[in-house]
Design goal:
Number of strands: 4
Number of helices: 14
Structural class: mainly alpha
Strand order of the largest sheet: 3-2-1-4
Largest sheet: 4 strands, mixed
Oligomer: single chain
Distance between the termini: 46 Å
Mean pLDDT: 94
Number of domains: 2
Strand content: 5-15%
Order of helices and strands: HEHEHEHHHEHHHHHHHH
Length: 290
């Protein structure tokens, strides 16, 4: 269709599937097709090319007869079709491209970066779409990654290694479960940061975690902390699992030379990671910020 109807722009249209939706992560199944699902792909244009061929290209795309969503949720929107490159990235970064300052990188949530860089790009001879994508995938400043990592580590220490058991001893079972939830979320985020990957939002967190090469095997114990029985010996088992997870993380921190702190209590590692941040403004932020 592109070659036949838009030959002058064939090398300028980026084609692929990425963005919002389980199909863009490759996680869709029969269950996920009950809402916001449609077959198709993405055609990304520069602002200039969109002004020239955006409308006729959209018409030609619709004429292909892609299957439309039968049910649309209130927050759902089409993830396929003709899009301006600037609009696609603005949805996730707040600007037409990649972040230009460490403050922007620090403020962007991981789920947004995950959606902006998921899926596949099948062709992009112009390179405009892929250049931004590559920056979002691999361009996070190292000092920002270390700051985010330090914040996750201190949260893991506070919620899991310290407060979980204390809440149980206080008789606050609900607070103990909240502490475990905080620990699991921070631990999962920590593993993604150690893999230099962006963590998708909670629905797909464990699915993505299982596929990580470094510490991906922590998915099972982290999932058990949320789904296993509670009370009596089960509480002691969960407390030990928390320590086992933290020990694995501490070993990886030392292996990557991110921390030289001794022991497995992650608070010490958090401060050591932060102390090795080069940018003084980032290093001066509160340990839990990030």
């Amino acid at each position: 269709m592109i070659r036949g109807q838009f030959p002058d722009f064939e090398g300028r249209i980026a084609v692929g599937l990425a963005g919002h939706g389980s199909q863009c992560f490759g996680y869709d199944d029969e269950l996920s097709r009950d809402h916001d699902f449609e077959t198709g792909f993405c055609l990304w244009l520069t602002d200039e090319d969109d002004a020239r061929i955006g409308v006729p290209l959209a018409r030609a795309y619709r004429a292909l007869g892609a299957e439309k969503a039968e049910a649309r949720s209130l927050l759902g929107e089409s993830a396929v079709g003709v899009r301006r490159i600037s609009d696609f990235y603005r949805r996730y970064t707040g600007s037409s491209g990649a972040p230009e300052s460490w403050q922007q990188w620090m403020s962007l949530p991981a789920w947004a970066l995950a959606e902006a860089t998921n899926g596949e790009v099948w062709r992009d001879e112009l390179g405009a779409f892929t250049a931004i994508r590559e920056t979002l995938l691999r361009g996070m400043p190292e000092d920002v990654r270390r700051k985010k990592l330090a914040a996750r580590l201190v949260t893991m220490a506070q919620s899991g290694q310290y407060n979980y058991s204390r809440c149980l001893r206080h008789g606050e079972a609900g607070a103990a479960m909240l502490a475990l939830g905080e620990f699991v979320n921070a631990a999962a985020s920590c593993v993604f940061l150690l893999n230099r990957r962006h963590m998708p939002y909670y629905k797909w967190c464990f699915r993505a975690l299982r596929g990580l090469g470094t510490l991906g095997d922590l998915c099972e114990p982290l999932e058990f902390l949320l789904t296993g029985e509670n009370g009596g010996e089960a509480d002691a088992l969960k407390a030990q699992l928390v320590e086992d997870v933290c020990a694995s993380v501490a070993r990886e921190l030392r292996a990557q030379e991110l921390s030289h702190a001794a022991g497995d209590y992650l608070e010490a590692h958090a401060f050591d990671v932060q102390e090795h941040i080069d940018n003084p403004a980032i290093r001066a932020l509160h340990i839990m910020e990030g």
